[in-house]
Specification:
The chain is α/β, with parallel strands linked by helices and 580 residues long. 64% of the residues lie in helices and 11% in strands. The protein has 18 helices and twelve strands. 35% of the residues are buried.
Length: 580
């Protein structure tokens, strides 16, 4: 079992693998020298022919061979470390480069949890594959052949031949379990990544689970998945233990056969005492390299299962080269007969065409699940359009350089992310060289300046994802950061959802001010937020149902009119309830 793809990807490791094999071979020779000297010493002692000079020379040779053996063993381990170090670096570089090429569309190919597991645990498994299994794979065949000639020179090619014939029984045992092991380990990795994804999802949503008291249900679900993973793990361990028993039977049984044959040859007078001692002490070495290969086989299979997932990710089709600049003379962003689905089960957008003109305040409205946020995702290049076109100034969005695209279009969603650190550090993400006056200016615009002045100013510490701010403050800070970015187009995707009334008013007022100098695309389920928009697109079930300003849609679009009336009734009911 040898994967040429891995060797092609990490050619730099070849020299370290070869070095490992050479040093292991050197260790075998020094071991043979030591045992040969011991055999000759015992023979001379038995024959009462041992002299002081022979004793001293034997001790010197033994001491020298012991030092050389230690150096060979150390060097082999060093080569193993360098080979594994190289493959870890190369594989993680390849995964990172692939992520850069996929850009924001990487989510179409793998979840974050899967990528983390592949680049961390998966690559660690490949460390063992390169550092241990591959060198042992070659050395396990080289060592028995070398010992065959050593035994022949020592006096018995017959014993050497019998031992050499028994050696292939161990890889035969390995081959028997290989197919079972491959399927089992593939299932093991599938269950492992599934469990990791579930754990990460539950951890991130712990607050929601506690709020709705659903943590007990998720706990049971996690326990069920953990039990499935345990069962698969136990099957893997059972398979490994059974195969080890079989390999040990052949290895030590073959060594015992070699010892018996060597002893019989000695009793028959065919070989001397030194030769029989040499063969007895080295018989196990015929089988130990192959036995060790069998032990590494299970590690290698784990690495192979991990590598299959990594290569599958690396083989994902990349978007076309994004080399086009963002158009300087920009008149519109257009969607032309766009069909889109995240999976084959449900089409999210169906034959959607719309023209978003520059300099206008555009609203995209509709019920939850109508495809509003998907349109934003397509304009931002986060998902790839396979049927239809999304063009910016006549250029397909999939061909525009991602850095240039994100520099000119700023997205502000409900789940804006903040990093642990100061307010200043989080704002400078949008504009690295911004002055303190600029920072305070955007905070003033978003009605946050007084609050932070009452704290520690721009040095106010934010916890992870700004957990020490209220929902409204967090969303206003997201708006301040977006203003600092100063892009040509702004997309606000449900930017005022689930926040207090005061914060919502602050954000809407700032968006209206911004719409006078920038192109604004506002995605919202609340129609009152886009009444003043120049153009509104109404979606239902992934299809465009109407286009125009607020008054035009009330007259011409039944779906928009129904949404408006429903929301108006709910707002009036809410006002009455408050008065009561």
């Amino acid at each position: 079992m040898f994967d040429k793809r891995l060797m092609k990807m990490c050619p730099e490791s070849k020299k370290y693998i070869i070095g490992n094999i050479v040093f292991q071979w050197g260790e075998l020779f020094t071991n043979a020298v030591m045992i040969g000297v011991i055999g000759a010493f015992v023979e001379k002692l038995y024959e009462k022919k041992l002299t002081t000079n022979m004793l001293i020379s034997s001790m010197i040779i033994l001491f020298g061979a012991l030092i050389l053996r230690w150096l060979a063993s150390y060097s082999a381990n060093r080569m193993s470390y360098l080979a594994s170090k190289t493959v870890k670096r190369v594989m993680r570089e390849q995964i990172y480069k692939k992520l850069l090429k996929l850009g924001s569309t990487y989510r179409e190919h793998a979840t974050t949890a899967e990528l983390v597991q592949e680049s961390v645990e998966g690559v660690e498994q490949l460390e063992s594959y390169f550092g241990q299994y591959v060198p042992q794979f070659f050395y396990a065949f080289l060592a028995p052949i070398t010992l065959f000639f050593m035994f022949g020179i020592a006096g018995s090619f017959k014993v050497a031949a019998i031992l050499l014939i028994c050696v292939p029984l161990i890889p035969g045992a390995i081959m028997m379990v290989q197919k079972i092991a491959k399927k089992l380990l593939s299932k093991y990795w599938d269950q492992y990544t599934k469990l990791g994804s579930t754990f990460l999802e539950n951890l991130q949503g712990m607050t929601i689970l506690k709020t709705y008291q659903a943590d007990a249900y998720k706990n049971e679900q996690m326990n069920a998945e953990s039990e499935n993973f345990r069962l698969v793990t136990m099957k893997v361990l059972t398979m490994q233990l059974n195969s080890i028993i079989i390999m040990d039977f052949f290895a030590y049984g073959g060594a015992a056969l070699g010892i018996a044959m060597a002893g019989k040859s000695f009793l028959d007078g065919k070989i001397g005492l030194a030769s029989v001692i040499f063969m007895i002490l080295l018989s196990a070495d015929f089988f130990l390299p192959m036995r060790r290969l069998g032990s590494y086989f299970h590690v290698a299979m784990n690495g192979m299962a991990a590598s299959d997932r990594i290569f599958s990710f690396l083989a994902e089709k990349e978007p076309d080269s994004k080399v086009k600049d963002f158009p300087q003379q920009l008149s519109e962003i257009s969607l032309n007969k766009v069909n889109f689905s995240y999976d084959s089960d449900r089409e999210v957008l169906h034959d959607v065409s719309m023209c978003i003109r520059m300099g206008e305040f555009t609203g995209i409205v509709g019920e939850s699940g109508s495809g509003k946020s998907t349109i934003a995702s397509l304009i931002m290049g986060r998902n790839t359009v396979l049927d239809g076109e999304v063009n910016i100034g006549g250029i397909n969005v999939n061909k525009i350089n991602e850095e240039k695209l994100l520099k000119n279009i700023t997205y502000v969603g409900l789940g804006s992310v903040f990093f642990k650190g100061t307010v200043k550090e989080n704002l400078l993400v949008a504009k690295e060289n911004a002055t303190e006056n600029e920072l305070w200016s955007v905070l003033e615009d978003c009605n946050l300046a007084d609050f932070f002045r009452g704290e520690k100013g721009l040095d106010t510490i934010l916890t992870e994802n700004a957990g020490n701010l209220s929902g409204g403050q967090r969303q206003r800070l997201a708006l301040a950061r977006a203003l600092l970015h100063d892009s040509r187009v702004y997309i606000f995707d449900e930017a005022t959802s689930n926040i207090d009334v005061e914060s919502e008013e602050d954000i809407l007022n700032e968006i209206k001010k911004l719409s006078k100098i920038k192109t604004i695309i506002m995605i919202t389920h609340r129609l009152a937020n886009v009444v003043s928009a120049d153009r509104i697109f109404c979606l239902e079930s992934g299809m465009e149902k109407g286009e125009g300003n607020h008054e035009q849609l009330l007259d011409t679009c039944p779906e928009y009119r129904q949404l408006w009336n429903t929301q108006k009734e709910l707002e009036e009911f809410e006002k009455e309830a408050k008065h009561e």
